[in-house]
Specification:
By secondary structure, this protein is mostly helical. It is built from nine helices and five strands. It has helices at 2-10, 13-16, 56-76, 88-97, 109-117, 126-147, 150-167, 172-180, 182-188; strands at 19-23, 26-27, 33-34, 36-39, 42-46. The protein has a three-stranded mixed β-sheet, covered by helices on one side. Strands 2-3 form a two-stranded antiparallel sheet. A hairpin with a 5-residue loop joins strand 2 (26-27) and strand 3 (33-34). Helix 1 packs parallel to helix 3 (56-76). The protein is globular, with a radius of gyration of 17 Å. The protein starts with a helix and ends in an 8-residue tail after the last helix.
Length: 196
C-alpha cells in the first residue's frame, strides 16, 4: 500500500481528489470481472485474483500498472476535465491508439478496446472505447518506462523520436505529462498562479 500511495502521489492523484481502494474483486457495470475500476474519484483495485506466490514487489508493480490504466479514467472524468474529447491531448492520443499495436498483438489499442467493450453496457459511445484504448496504451507505456534502463532505454527514446518525426503522432510528451503529474497540475492551476 505504501508503494501504491507513493505512485499515486507521483501522478498527482491527491490534487484530483482521487483516492485508492483495494478490494478482493471488482466488477464492471456490465458484471464483468476487472482488475480495477474508476468511479466518482475512487480508483478501486482488485487483489483477490493475484497469484499468492507473487512477491510483494510483483504485486505492487502489477497494481501500479492497473492504477496507471485507471489514472486515465480519472483524468477524463468530466468533473476534472484534464483530458476530454475536446482537448488537443485527447485527439493526439486517439490518433495514436488507432495506429499503435498492443504489444504482442496484431490489433491496435482501439481495435482491442472495440473487441472487448463494444457490446458492454456503458461503452456504447465511441469515446468510452477510445478512453479504454488510451488507458491501456498509457499502462503499457508507463510499464516499459519503469522497466527499461541504460542503453535499451536510450534506444527506445531514439526510436520514439524517430517515429515521432515520421508519424508526428507518438504522444510521448502527453504520456510524460500524465506520468509526472504535470498535466493535472497545469489543468488545476488558476491563471497567473504558480500553485495548483
Amino acid at each position: 500500500a505504501s508503494r501504491l500511495n507513493k505512485h499515486a502521489k507521483k501522478r498527482n492523484l491527491p490534487l484530483l481528489g482521487t483516492r485508492i481502494n483495494l478490494v478482493d474483486a471488482v466488477a464492471t457495470p456490465g458484471g464483468q470481472h476487472a482488475e480495477g475500476f474508476y468511479l466518482r474519484k475512487l480508483i478501486t483495485l482488485a487483489v483477490g485474483h493475484l497469484d499468492p506466490s507473487m512477491t510483494n514487489e510483483e504485486v505492487a508493480e502489477h497494481l501500479a500498472q492497473v492504477m496507471d490504466h485507471e489514472l486515465i479514467h480519472a483524468l477524463t472524468d468530466r468533473e476534472v476535465g484534464v483530458l476530454t474529447p475536446e482537448t488537443e491531448g485527447w485527439k493526439t492520443l486517439v490518433r495514436y491508439v488507432k495506429r499503435a499495436k498492443v504489444p504482442g498483438s496484431t490489433e491496435t489499442y482501439f481495435e482491442w478496446a472495440n473487441r472487448l467493450y463494444a457490446r458492454e453496457r456503458g461503452y456504447e459511445r465511441v469515446e468510452t472505447r477510445e478512453e479504454e484504448a488510451i488507458a491501456e496504451a498509457f499502462r503499457h507505456w508507463a510499464k516499459d518506462r519503469r522497466n527499461v534502463a541504460g542503453k535499451p532505454a536510450a534506444v527506445f527514446r531514439q526510436l520514439v523520436s524517430w517515429f515521432k518525426g515520421l508519424l508526428d503522432a507518438v504522444p510521448k510528451e502527453m504520456f510524460t505529462a500524465i506520468e509526472s503529474g504535470s498535466l493535472v497540475e497545469a489543468a488545476l492551476r488558476p491563471p497567473g498562479s504558480t500553485m495548483p
